Amino acid sequence: MVENNPQLVTQIRNKFLNVDNCPVSGKRIFFENAGGALTLKGVLEASNEFTSFPDNQGRSNVASEYAMSKIQRGKEDIRLLFNAKSGRVFIGESGTELIFRIIRDAIVSSEEGGNVVGSTLEHPATRSAAIRWSKIFNKKYMSIPHCNADGTVTPQDYEKYINKNTRVATIIHSSPVTGITTKVAKISQTIRRLSPNCFIIIDGIQHASHGIIDVDSYNADAYIISPYKLFSRHGYGVAWLSERLSKVDHDHLIGGPENSWELGTRDAGSYATFSEVVKYFSWLGSTLSSENDPRIRIKIAYEKIKEFEKQLINLMVEGTKDLKGLRYLPNLKAIGGFENESRAGLISIYSDNLDSFEIVRLLREKRIRVHVRKDDHYSGTILKPLGLSSCVRVSICHYNSKEEVLNFLTAMNQICF
Ligand SMILES: Cc1ncc(COP(=O)(O)O)c(C=O)c1O
Asked: 35: CA distance to ligand 1 center in Å?
């Protein structure tokens, strides 16, 4: 319990930078984790080390060998965190760039004709890439409408759209607007049953800081995350590809290794910072058990993260005997409902009589950072069907504290009428 574990919460918070202080504007509570999570102190150190490094990989000197060993270690750590025993892992420019590139190459290399399937829950990176490349390659793009009431999309929804001609299907693991997680393994199973050779591409960018990744159990072809949303830094994205998808024709240097998916000189610092993220999960797992197996430690860490986040969201929704929770505040509603078992670390709310921008402004004045989502190209597919022009996204992480939630609730009790 967050309440029963104040020491662990303090230990966790000590691992991160700028926990309760914005380096630009001073003291604040950070509930904008879906826009970018806090950075680990170890990430800053690893990043600094390699920023100052002039040596490139592939040279015969110790500095070059050191950088290459960090890249190798980083790759092993990505595999460990993803539980990826086969296939390829690599780093690209960002989550969006990797999603575009992987969807394009999957569509380009798939059998002629057929269709490509995604859902309205997905981020515009996935939808834009799938729609664009389907059109160029004469494939029909089909969009599964998500459920407005639950804020998610189910295996049954996919079942209605996938057929034997589906060449590529995309799945979002967790929505950064509704905060609701999908059942990726079951969706993937449904897709495989109906179209065994379909390339299945999963966007795990919102999910990664809230729930375990287990690509070995998904029977999919690609999984993509953005490290700046997983306690690391901006400037790179991470992807895993199945053996099958890694072998399709793709951009690479003629004469160079054909199975390389990395374009240009690698930033050893990105791999080194990712290793710090995996080290953090391992540390958290080791404070909670005596397990030596690194994968089991990661599992234990994620279980605790899930438990902490559920408690924080529950407190936010229900409040205490002295302080009303969000569900009891006048005219306030939640996308996907206040009670939703599949919610992970994020709740998007709106008021019937208060503008979302105004709520964000009032919270900002009280030094609480949340974010407005508008019915634009990012969130329109989720907000428009609800007749909403905006909502307030409150996104937490396991390092947030009970006190921060209570401060937020005090502010919301003053704001809502
Ligand atoms: C689910 C999801 N997909 C894709 C992206 C885009 O990732 P990036 O900012 O790394 O391009 C985001 C960013 O928040 C996201 O939440």
From this structure: 9
What CATH fold (topology level) applies to the domain 6-38+306-412? Answer: Aspartate Aminotransferase, domain 1 (3.90.1150)
Confidence of residue 2 (pLDDT cuts 50, 70, 90): low
Q: Which residues of 2-38 are buried (b: 16+ CB within 10 A; e: fewer)?
A: beebeebbeebeebbeebeeeeeeeebbbbbbbeebb
How far apart are the C-alpha atoms of 114 and 111, rounded to whole Å?
8
Q: What is the b/e burial string over 320-334, where b = at least 16 CB atoms within 10 angstroms of the residue's CB? A: eeeebbbbebeebbb
Q: What are phi and psi of 336, to 5 degrees?
A: 80, 5
> Which ligand 1 atom sits closest to the C-alpha of 204?
1
Distance from the alpha carbon of residue 123 to the mean position of ligand 1, in angstroms? 7
Residue with the nearest Cα to atom 2 of ligand 1?
205
Query: Is the minimum distance from the CB of 167 to ligand 1 under 6 angstroms?
Result: no
Ligand 1: distance of its center to the CA of 237 in Å?
10
178 lines ligand 1 (CB under 6 A): no
Mutation pick for ligand 1 pocket among 97, 98, 123 (CB with most ligand atoms within 8 Å) = 123
User: What is the tens place of the pLDDT at every residue in 366-403?
Assistant: 999 999 999 999 999 999 999 999 999 999 999 999 99
Give the CATH number of domain 45-278. Answer: 3.40.640.10
**Confidence band (pLDDT; 50, 70, 90) for 3?**
low
Q: Is 205 in the pocket of ligand 1 (CB under 6 A)?
A: yes
Q: What is the pLDDT of residues 195-239, one digit of tens each?
A: 999 999 999 999 999 999 999 999 999 999 999 999 999 999 999
pLDDT more than 70, % of the chain: 99
pLDDT tens for each residue of 110-169: 999 999 999 999 999 999 999 999 999 999 999 999 999 999 999 999 999 999 999 999
CB of 203 shorter than 6 A to ligand 1: yes
Count of H helices and E strands in the chain? 13, 15
Record the tokens describing residue 48, joined without a space. 């600094």
Domain ranges of the chain: 6-38+306-412, 45-278
Atom of ligand 1 nearest to the CA of 207: 1
